[in-house]
Amino acid sequence: MGRVFLLRYHRGMTTISRPVGDVLREWRQRRRMSQLDLACEADISTRHLSFMETGRSVPSREMVLHLAEQLQIPLRERNALLVAAGYAPVFPQRGLDDPALDAARKAMELVLKGHEPYPALALDRHWNMVAANGAVTPLLAGIDAALLQPPLNVLRLSLHPQGLAPRIGNYNEWRAHLFDRLRRQIDISADPVLVALLEELAAYPAPDGAWGKPHAAGADYAGVVVPFQLLTDGGVLSFISTTTVFGTPIDVTLSELALETFFPADTATADALRRLSGAGK
Predict the structure, then answer these.
(1) Lowest CB count within 10 Å: 61, 210, 272, 276, which one?
(2) How many CB atoms lie within 10 A of CB 277?
């Protein structure tokens, strides 16, 4: 059986230099809320909210956090919003190797290891792989070495012509699924790095003979989930995936961490993965 491995690299803080009122208004509009909608949710007057957005009133630290909660602003951006209002950030951002995150890191590693012989990985907010279990490595055979250098971006790895793209059986369907997820994430976070990533991925050419429809192995899941179908020398491996996040995190790093776990969509895939891991011997 393989072992969980951890990748470490620096993550920078988002900074905002605009007036806090401008930033609040932008988040409100991004959430498609009127001033009345937000005022009602926050239990404040529309006049008070209008004054904060126009700069006639400076929100207190507690008000900034209260409005950020109603707008479901990511923790990283809540820190930036506090800074824009003249306050210190309140949500710590630690590396996964920080002793304060020992429990979270061990929980992550337990989930990844326990999911073997099926593949599972941990991702940061930009879809860079933070950790993975041993079942992932055999699936990356033949990938261009440059795409495997940290930070390893799984979207780039999946859709790049020198990555997994030529081996994805339902490439067009899987690509559309990933783009939908990425666009939803951009709507929520307004992260410029993700916007640039989407533009990069959209420019990749489709591999020759890309399949537009799912392979029959995923037919049972049509209309419910989008399967991931990987062409191998031993046949088509078909997966369905789930995403898990840490509940109510108070650390920026944990709030942006997601565990992506893949399950076999058919018996043939389950048997093949067990053989690859040695569990079937």
Answers:
(1) 61
(2) 18
CA–chain centroid gap for 210, Å, is 25
Q: Are 252 and 79 in contact (CB under 8 A)?
A: yes
Distance (Å, rounded) from C-alpha 117 to C-alpha 125?
A: 26
Instruction: Using a cut of 0.85, tell me whether the model's pTM lies above it.
Output: no
Alpha carbons 202 and 176: distance in angstroms, whole number: 10
Calpha distance 49→39 (Å, rounded): 7
Instruction: Give me the CATH number covering residue 234.
Output: 3.30.450.180
pLDDT in tens, 178-233: 999 999 999 999 899 999 999 999 999 999 876 554 444 444 544 457 899 999 98
Note down the domain range covering 63.
20-84
DSSP 3-state of 140: helix
Q: Residue 113 is encoded by which pair of tokens?
A: 């290891």
Q: Rounded to an integer, what distance in angstroms lies between the CA atom of residue 196 and that of residue 219?
A: 34
